[in-house]
Sequence to fold (1036 residues):
Amino acid sequence: MNIPNELRYSKTHEWVRLEESTAVIGLTDHAQSQLGDLVFVNLPAPGDAVTAGEPMGDVESVKAVSDVYCPVTGLVSAVNTELEDSPQLINEQPYEAWLIRVEKISGTEELLTAAEYEALIASEQE
Amino acid sequence: MGSFLPSTAAERREMLAFLGLRSADELYAAVPPEVFLSQPPDLPPPKAELEVRRTMEGLAARNKVFRTILRGAGAYDHYIPAAVGRIASKESFVTAYTPYQAEISQGVLQAIFEYQTMICELTGMDVSNASVYDGAAAAAEAVAMTRERGRSAAVVSAAIHPDVLATIRTYCFGSDTDLIVAPAPGGITDLSALKGLLTGKTACVYVQQPNFFGLIEPCDAIAEAVHEAGAKLILGVVPSTLGVLKSPREWGADIAVGEGQPLGLPLGWGGPYLGFMAATSALMRRLPGRIVGQTTDKNGERAFVLTLQAREQHIRREKASSNICSNQALCALTASVYLSMMGPEGLRQVGGQCYAKAHWFADELCKLKGVKRRHSGEFFLEFVTDLPVPPERVLSALEQKNILGGLPVEGGILWCVTEKHTRRQLEEALAVIGEVCLP
Amino acid sequence: MKLIFERSVEGRGNSLLPPLDVPAAGIPESLRRQTPPRLPQLSESETSRHYAALERRTFGVCDGFYPLGSCTMKYNPKLSEEMAALPGFTDIHPLQPGHTVEGCRAVYDLCGSLLCTLTGMDAMSFQPAAGAHGEFAGLLLIKAYHKARGDSGRTRILVPDSAHGTNPASAAMAGYTVVTIPSTAEGLVDLDALRKTAGEDTAGLMLTNPNTVGLFEPNILEVTRIIHDAGGLVYYDGANLNAIMGVTRPGDMGFDVLHLNLHKTFATPHGGGGPGSGPVGCKAHLAPYLPGCALTGEGGRESIGQVKAFHGNFLVVVKALTYLLSLGAQGVREAAEAAVLNANYLKKKLADRGYIPAYGGLCMHEFVLTVEELKKRTGVSALDLAKGMLDRGMHPPTMYFPLIVHEALMFEPTETESPETLELVCDVLSDLLRQAETDPEHVRSAPLKTVIGRPDETAAARRPTVRYEWG
Fold:
């Protein structure tokens, strides 16, 4: 299971890369393996407000839909439009296939380190 | 036996014994005694097939079957080719369930894929669903489809079918959508009044083409105004006109809906009917209901499956945009067979003959003293006349001759003429009406 | 197999309409369609062959065992088909004047009266076209009821976690917030959770009884009392009525409003996914809100309006009435008892062969097996077993529903299966189980004998192709 050290993680299996004043958000390798082949992604639009801990969109596989939670509070500055036609990029390269970029960050959820996230996954699987 | 059980009472006793039970009552041990019926319910006793047949035939005989039906208003008496009913009665088609197990349901799935394609061709749209309950439900679902953040008001023309308006209104009661009715004095949607009603909150405008009174709406201009306001145009259409009349796509619609009954379904006192929904490709994922898609199996063979199911209620539950679980599969299949039997040439003939016959009948009617068209302007399939006598008198005189006259509307009569009516039938009706209208 | 468009040849067609016998009238150019529709151009003979080939690739109740849980795939009597094809029913325009449709009215009056007696309701509307449609109408009755009493704070509908997806979806469509009530380990409504959740903001509870795991709620009277005490109403999802018709009545259990699925309990055919009929029935206090019809002026002043045009799927109701008259009082009860008997018989036989029921004890008309343990051991899942059944000429049970059971297979044999068919089913499933243990890869590659193998559903959803494209 791939869990890059330089990223931070939410308890709901999103990863966060903090770049100065922007947060880049995606789904972890563990998340994509649990979800199965993704067929569609519903994301917010640039300019939308997002709130830490609240659902910001969802991902669809053939037989299920799962909410994606935003780990930070702020404004969406960019959305990865490649995912519209190629949602499978999330399955193939979960840490390159970012979902949204957020700016004007005014709060975050409790974010875990790679080690803490690995422990979380292990405890969930018991 | 009468309840279609293959097993005999003796066999069932053995099965109970296998379960360690002595009577069927013991199967219901979990039912509280207060609500357990110790006597059978107060229904009539069982009847053998021959008796039931007599009872049902007796009920049917209490209806009056008209030889000539000059009434439309959402249900049309078109000619249904013999092959349509025969093919649609094939037992496997009739008794199959929803095609969730694709491998043994390729027949149903392919038939729906073909239906979806035919609806796209008829309407000029890019995508179609597998159908919904009827044209009114389709209109209401289309209105719901267009709701988005910031846009929650729907504008509908006053010149639409009253049942469709009532259905949209009921669905809006559920979703707390604002419903605004655009006036249609003179029978056609008032374009400038409509423009005045469009705001940044308008999600959609719903107009019928032809409208409830058979009149042609200025859909080009309406589409322009609607799109300028950032809203979507939903056109409700009559499919039997689409062999010749401009398609919803050509008018500029974003969503096309309508009642599919004219495509080979009997009048049947109102149902089962067929609601079709088609849209531009941008709106595909917002379409409610089932959709069949093409794919391949693991050997590379072409295959059909229910797809985009993650929109639907069984997966999204309360987050689904619609609760619809079924479609009108057998009715959609019936429509496909009708369209295949007709082909583009047959449908062109239907449209052309309806147009010619309705216009001829209107002209002949207006030759009668005191009879005139209520509205001016182009019409297709239906039209309203005012008469020198109360509509009821005309209608009961026609009824004596086994003719169902048009629908009484606001003191006049809404007539409908289709390709099925012969000149002789129409002349017979004209003679009766002429006599009643004599001063 | 070719698509009908691939069989089409320019210029082919049929002679169906006589030439125009009135003067021709030119449609103005501005109204004319510019691009003709590309409908198939075939002779009747080719059309006939095409649909015959499609029929061979279709599996109906006439083709074999069809134990889909909560769908009630019972036999569809042919008399019903014939009665619904009588010209005295098919050739009736929905807007004919009242005195010319006494037969249609009598069908609705009689069927409505029989169904009200059977279910303990006071009034019924046949307008909704399907179960989900009936649910929507029924929830609007609840909404109208509370609104009329000025009780505007009731914004929530309670739904068990075992409920069919249409329940929360219908509640959302009716403008309600959905609150999920957990089930106990025994698969029943958690009464403590219900007591805590029901309150002043509760508009109502939606329930099916027996529930989706095939169990009758023994505490049903307490459940409805809790909701009524909180000021809410109780909605009965009639999908599972086949287990209890003639034995007990939703109205007596305390339900205020319900829908029925005529295409399930009352043997009208499923048609490949419709048309069905989902009449909504209610007690007297909700009757004023029942749907009406704008064009015929039916419906009271307080009616919720209408959920579709005209009167409902009339010809489907004709079929249901034909069936009900055949069964009569004794037949209805006998059918329900036999449905429950067949389910318990099959359940015990399958358990004896090594399958694991999700819940012990007697079931009602359906039961759920779990193959979670089998999957862990052999990798063979509920889906694989279902696909294995296809190779044996049987339709599988419902898979992966209800959500509260893992690797679920939900069987509803119905009363119209013979004991020997049930034996055959057990033999087939027993054989599949054995294969799962000894040759799991074989089961996981099923089906092998059908016209296609497992379709790639992911590709279908990622790049949807939902219509034929001319090359």
User: Anything to note?
Assistant: The mean pLDDT of chain B is 95. Residues 68-78+344-436 of chain B form a domain with the Aspartate Aminotransferase, domain 1 fold (CATH 3.90.1150.10).
